[in-house]
Design a protein that fits this description.
The complex is a heterodimer of chains A (358) and B (805).
Chain A: H1 3-17, H2 21-32, H3 37-44, H4 50-89, H5 108-122, E1 126-127, E2 133-134, H6 136-139, H7 150-154, E3 170-171, H8 177-185, E4 190-199, E5 210-220, H9 225-240, E6 247-254, E7 257-270, E8 273-276, E9 281-291, H10 293-298, E10 307-314, H11 315-323, H12 336-342
Parallel strand pairs in A: 1-4
Antiparallel strand pairs in A: 2-3, 4-5, 5-10, 6-7, 7-8, 7-9, 9-10
Helix pairs in contact in A: 1-2, 1-4, 2-4, 3-4, 5-11
Chain B: E1 2-4, H1 5-9, E2 12-13, H2 18-28, E3 31-36, H3 38-41, E4 46-55, E5 63-69, E6 72-78, E7 88-92, E8 97-98, E9 103-104, E10 108-110, E11 113-115, E12 118-119, H4 147-150, E13 157-161, H5 172-181, E14 186-187, E15 219-226, H6 235-243, H7 251-263, E16 268-271, E17 280-283, E18 289-291, E19 297-299, E20 305-309, E21 312-316, E22 320-321, E23 334-340, H8 343-353, H9 358-363, H10 372-387, E24 390-391, E25 395-398, E26 406-410, H11 413-418, H12 424-433, E27 437-440, E28 444-448, H13 459-470, H14 493-507, E29 511-512, E30 518-519, H15 521-526, E31 546-547, H16 552-564, E32 570-579, E33 587-596, H17 613-626, E34 635-638, E35 644-653, E36 659-666, H18 668-673, E37 680-686, E38 712-721, H19 726-735, E39 741-750, H20 753-759, E40 763-772, H21 781-799, E41 802-803
Parallel strand pairs in B: 29-32
Antiparallel strand pairs in B: 1-13, 2-14, 3-13, 4-5, 4-7, 5-6, 7-12, 8-9, 10-11, 15-23, 15-24, 15-25, 16-23, 17-20, 18-19, 20-21, 21-22, 26-28, 27-28, 30-31, 32-33, 33-37, 34-35, 35-36, 36-37, 38-40, 38-41, 39-40
Helix pairs in contact in B: 5-12, 7-10, 14-17, 19-21
The chains are: A alpha+beta (358), B alpha+beta (805).
Chain lengths: 358, 805
């Protein structure tokens, strides 16, 4: 074995034996460094004859390269080992729980408000609102409910104390005053819905002194009862997200509509939950009719020229039906358990393209 | 309004089934609330005969009966004292549901003797409270006859809801008329023969009203019948009244109830011997009193119509009779009264006196005035049939008020308003069947309204009559036109703001609540409310007496209730109205939220902390930004209304005249008053106060203007008096070089006792980082130093502080 081979064996063994980067660096300096064994041999080339040089040159270069490669390989190996060791040390318990994030919720009344608006907006209805503290005129008289009308007694009205002029304000008992306010200020054709809080002096298992209604009003020159039926049936299909819905239209009476009708929706009860659209039971969901000529004229429009329909339904009620919420009173108790259970995510924004509910 | 099927068939000639009838009633607007068909619920109960009843071997009070039933001989153990050999009773076999006890019958062994069924009392069948013994049938009934037949209960009872516009349907005859028009049979004409009187009534009637009040009672029909014998009314009548839930009293009283329910015609019968002098329908005198048939004494006033005699009021007109002139078992001579009373006055009186009666219910909705004399003849005839007696001539004081009126129903109006095409002849038939007299003329039908329909006041009402009889299910659905091919946006800016604020707050982890618009007076006052105009005159309770001046109090008490349920960490918000007065402009739409407890549950990393003012401030600013408020130009200043902590609260405003939001820790005294354990932080935004956005709008964004040059940051710490607000330093720093300084961030605050020690009494230190964004060329060190010097100078000048060495 030549000296060169012996040297190569010695140095590569030293490289393999280097346990860390410092040891490896020492081997590199001892071989390839300025005063290293291989560098010394390289320097000796200058004193050789051309023939010797021709033979030794490539051999020495080969040695230098082999050692360089061995050092590079050992460097990589040491680095990998170092990283593995660090990673092993960095291990943590990923089964630990995440930092708490509180989940907010949207109240069912707001969610259903958004759903109802989506549907009617598509039919060209805008959203009107009105004050909750109303005058007798807007809440009753303009709606064809004179003071002595028996319907007034059925309204269980909240009153405020009389003013100096004898008039007294009321808490609106329905959203219908918005009909009058809209007709007073807008030119037909009119298509609006008016959702909002309403109040009746009534409190028991199924009644709360405050609840939510949505009013609908269409006024133009041609809209008739057939349009009303269509509109409500399309609404019910869209809202309850069913292809067909069984509906029953019953003649009824409201002072502000003529003809008037109440609408029941077919349903069935399965395991205490109501299923909307089919079945042999009926649930009353809204009242409606053609706007009474007296209401149109009280709003300053000509009843000989204009006609149209109006309807009103309970937002809380349709929310209960759609989402299987059993108790109306719980809507207003702000019980966190209820809000979390029946509430909606902030990102569940109802829209027609993706469906109103998830 | 209840009626029985057989009673209906007195007036309606029909083969229709019960189901057909209830479906038709619903269609025509007489909503069926309940059908009670005992033939169905009591189907298992049948007639049986007790062949032998013998003493139970081991029980003194029990008998063992061999009962012959439809299914052969059965042994029954019976505890009724009247169980005896040879009696006929009602038997229920094992498996029958006993409505009176709620139990399903099973074969049992009673004191060692098997019993396979039950002999029933009326209470067990829920027919009455009678439970002294088992039913003991008279007469010869075949074994197995349905119990309802033997007991005369085979008549279904239908309960319908009558809308206030249909007084005519408060009588069964009126219901029959609607059904006949609907095509369910033929209305039988009323055949009423006037009863001839043989003498002049010894009691005369004089309407005593002045011109202004003569509408109170424009018509009074009366008749004296002498020599009557009052007693129980016939069984058929008692059965009908019982089925309707009325208690049969005596023939004279039962007749009045019969007319009320059959023809919606209230009648009153006076004991003529207790009437002093003549009868005077008149207005009561203020303070006059009357003991009524309900046993209560009522104080009357001059708005009340009474039927009076020489001694005073004998009845409140159209509402209730007087106790002193009422009929009893011993009544021998009677005076029958049928009058027409003004509906409005009747309603007002009824409300004022708080009397609910079948008569008031009908009179205040408007009975048929023209039927008054007809009803008088029917009543007379019935009294004579049941009680004998000799009638006087009929007294008629006043006249039938004129209700005649007619309206033209244009030929196409049913179609253009009602949406359904009905042939003209069919329209005419329907209206005539409902009692209108109809003349066909050029534009359509001239319809004169029958006196029993006070609700029909125009053409639209005629359309309603046609559509309800045709059935609304037969009105074809007609699609509405789309105003635009693709629907246009419809929400107002405030509505969009409301939605955006709501979803933002929920996204920040708050739960949306909907709380009452009212609250107790003391709570209203704590939050700047409680004013007279927003106080309810008739609150449902003192807890809900005032309109809320702010959304915060109800949210705070809701937090308290949740604490009581064991939730320490609560974050609630609400968006809704608050009311500072009773005018529309006093009503504002607000978004408010409250937080209590920690930012989250305890965590292994220990990252939770108690919520503080800056959580409320963050909520407020996020909701304001979502709602489109100009957050960049908003000032946040210290201080908020009284219900906040005076040193830990702030206001977001665009100048002192336009305050949009308050936030902060709630005042401990307010929390004490609301009985809620703090600390609590909260905010309230008035969404109406956010100004309309400036600029021309449009969806396009402004051109993006960013520099490729690297931004430079520099840090400064200032020593300032403790009272100096951070915002002052930030603004002063920013103002040093408005174009170049793009951001100023506060990154350190050193305050408190330690700071006082290190920096001097009454001092604190605040550190800021400023960002310089060069636009044209990289800044040199000299340029940066120049800006830094300006920042220091500006801050020192504005705050009186100095750069911390």
């Amino acid at each position: 074995m030549s000296d060169l081979q012996a040297l190569e064996t010695e140095i590569t063994a030293a490289i393999e034996a280097a346990g860390d980067m410092a040891a490896l660096e020492a081997v590199r300096v001892a071989s390839l460094g300025k005063k290293g064994s291989v560098s010394a041999l390289m320097k000796s080339l200058g004193g050789m004859s051309p023939d010797e040089r021709k033979e030794m040159g490539p051999k020495l270069n080969g040695l230098k390269q082999t050692i360089g490669e061995a050092i590079a390989a050992r460097t990589q190996g040491l680095r990998n080992a170092e990283l593995e060791a660090r990673l092993a040390e960095e291990k943590i318990d990923v089964t630990l729980p995440i930092r708490p994030e509180s989940q907010g919720t949207i109240h069912p009344v707001s969610q259903v408000w958004d759903e109802v608006v989506q549907i009617f907006a598509d039919l060209g209805f805008s959203v009107a609102e009105g004050p909750h503290i109303e005058t007798d005129f807007y809440n009753f008289e303009a709606l064809n409910i004179p003071p002595e009308h028996p319907a007034r007694q059925e309204h269980d009205t909240f009153y405020f104390n009389p003013r100096d002029d004898g008039s007294r304000m009321v808490l609106r008992t329905h959203t219908s005053p918005v009909q009058i306010r809209t007709m007073e200020t807008e030119e037909p054709p009119i298509r609006i819905i008016a959702p909002g809080r309403t109040y009746r002096c009534d409190s028991d298992q199924t009644h709360t002194p405050m609840f939510h209604q949505v009013e609908g009003l269409v006024i133009d020159e041609t809209t008739h009862l057939g349009h009303l039926k269509w509109c409500l049936e399309e609404f019910c299909k869209a809202f309850f997200e069913v292809d067909e819905v069984k509906m029953r239209f019953r003649a009824s009476h409201f002072p502000f509509t003529e003809p008037s009708m109440e609408i029941d929706i077919g349903c069935s009860w399965e395991g205490g939950q109501v299923k909307i659209g089919t079945g042999d039971d009926w649930l009353e969901i809204l009242g409606s009719g053609m706007v009474h000529p007296k209401v149109i004229s009280a709003s300053g429009l000509d009843p000989e020229k204009y006609q149209g329909f109006a309807f009103g339904m309970g937002i809380d009620r349709i929310a209960m039906l759609k989402y299987g919420i059993p108790d109306l009173r719980a809507f207003f108790e702000a019980d966190l358990r209820w809000l979390r259970h029946y509430g909606f995510s902030a990102f569940d924004v109802p829209e027609l393209a993706g469906g109103l509910s998830r | 309004m209840k009626f029985t099927l057989s009673w209906l068939k007195d007036y309606l000639d029909t083969d229709a089934t019960l189901d057909d009838i209830t479906a038709a009633l619903n269609d025509v607007g007489l909503e069926v609330e309940e059908v009670e068909n005992l033939s169905e619920t009591l189907g298992a109960f049948t007639v049986a005969k007790v062949k032998e009843a013998r003493q139970h071997p081991d029980a003194d009070r029990l008998r063992v009966c061999d009962v012959e039933t439809a299914n052969g001989m059965v042994q029954v153990v019976c505890g009724a004292p009247n169980a005896r050999t040879g009696m006929t009773g009602i038997f229920a076999p094992p498996g029958t549901h006993i409505p009176g006890t709620g139990v399903d019958l099973a074969v049992g062994v009673i004191r060692g003797v098997e019993s396979a069924g039950m002999l029933c009392s009326e209470r067990e069948m829920m027919l009455s409270d009678e439970h002294d013994g088992i039913i003991d049938l008279e007469g010869d009934w075949a074994i197995g006859t349905p119990a309802v037949d033997a007991l005369g209960l085979d008549d279904p009872v239908i309960d319908i809801a009558i809308t206030p516009n249909r007084p005519d349907a408060l009588g069964i005859y009126g219901i029959a008329r609607d059904l006949a028009a609907r095509g369910l049979g033929t209305l039988k004409p009323l055949e009423v023969t006037p009863v001839p009187g043989s003498y002049t009534s010894p009691i005369d009637v004089k309407l005593t009203f002045d011109d202004a009040t003569k509408d109170a009672c424009p018509l009074f029909c009366g008749r004296y019948i002498k020599g009557v014998k009052n007693g129980p009314s016939p069984e058929w009548l008692q059965r009908r009244l019982t089925a309707l839930g009325l208690r049969p009293i005596s023939a004279l009283v039962d007749v009045t109830n019969y007319l009320t329910y059959a023809y919606a015609r209230p009648v009153h019968v006076f004991d003529a011997d207790k009437v002093a002098g003549n009868i005077q329908p008149r207005l009561a005198r203020d303070g006059e009193k009357m003991l009524a048939l309900d046993g209560k004494e009522y104080e009357l006033d001059s708005s009340v119509t009474v039927i009076a005699d020489d001694n005073g009021p004998d009845a409140v007109g159209g509402i209730i009779g007087g106790e002193l002139s009422g009929c009893t078992a011993g009544t021998k001579n009677v005076f029958v009264e049928l009058a027409y009373f003004d509906p409005i006055r009747t309603a007002t009186t009824g409300r004022k006196l708080g009397i609910i009666s079948d008569a008031r219910y009908r009179n205040e909705r408007g009975i048929d005035p023209a039927f008054t004399p007809v009803g008088a003849e029917i009543a007379t005839q019935m009294i004579m049939d049941f009680c004998g007696g000799e009638p006087s001539e009929l007294i008629t004081a006043g006249a039938i008020p004129d209700t005649s009126r007619s309206y033209t129903l244009r030929t196409d109006r049913v179609e253009t308003l009602g949406g359904v095409k009905v042939e003209l002849q069919e329209q005419k038939r329907i209206l005539e069947d409902l009692g209108f007299s109809v003349k066909q003329v050029e534009p359509g039908l001239v319809c004169s309204v029958p006196p029993w329909r006070p609700d029909v006041l125009g053409e639209a009402d005629l359309v309603e009559e046609i559509t309800r009889i045709v059935g609304l299910d037969n009105v074809p659905n007609a699609p509405m036109t789309r105003p635009n091919a693709v629907a246009r946006p419809v929400l107002t800016r405030l509505q969009k703001r409301t939605i955006a604020a709501r979803r933002t707050l929920a996204g920040r982890g708050l739960n949306e609540a909907v709380t009452w618009s009212f609250l107790p007076e003391d709570q209203a006052k704590l939050f700047g409310g409680g004013g007279e105009p927003v106080k309810l005159a008739n609150p449902i309770s003192t807890e809900l007496s005032d309109m809320r001046p702010s959304l915060l109090p109800n949210l705070i008490t809701a937090v308290g209730r949740n604490n009581d349920r064991g939730f320490a960490d609560v974050a609630l918000f609400e968006i809704g109205q608050a009311y500072l007065g009773d005018r529309p402009e006093d009503e504002t739409v607000r978004a408010a939220g409250v937080r209590r407890g920690n930012t989250g549950p305890r965590h292994w990393e220990g990252t939770v902390r108690p919520v503080d003012v800056f959580d409320a401030k963050a909520d407020a600013l996020a909701a304001l930004a979502a709602a489109g408020a100009p957050v960049q130009s908003l000032q946040v200043v210290a201080g908020a209304p009284d219900w906040f902590h005076p040193g830990r609260s702030g206001t977001c405003q665009l100048g002192p005249q336009n305050q949009m939001a308050h936030f902060g820790e709630l005042h401990p005294r307010v929390l004490d008053a609301l009985d809620v354990k703090g600390p609590l932080v909260g905010f309230e935004i008035v969404l109406n106060k956010i100004p309309e956005p400036k600029g021309k709008g449009g969806a396009a964004r402004a051109a993006m203007n960013v520099s490729d040059l690297q931004a430079v940051t520099r840090d400064f710490a200032f020593v300032i008096d403790t009272g100096v607000e951070a915002d002052k330093i930030v603004r002063a720093a920013k103002g040093a070089e408005k174009q170049l300084i793009t951001n100023v961030a506060v990154f350190d605050l050193f305050e408190g006792a330690a700071a006082g020690g290190a920096l001097g009494e009454g001092k604190k230190s605040l550190a800021i980082e400023i960002t310089l964004q060069p636009r044209d060329k990289t800044m040199t060190d000299e340029e940066i130093d120049a800006v830094a010097a300006k920042v220091v100078a500006n801050v020192e000048k504005a705050t009186g502080g100095m750069l911390r060495g």
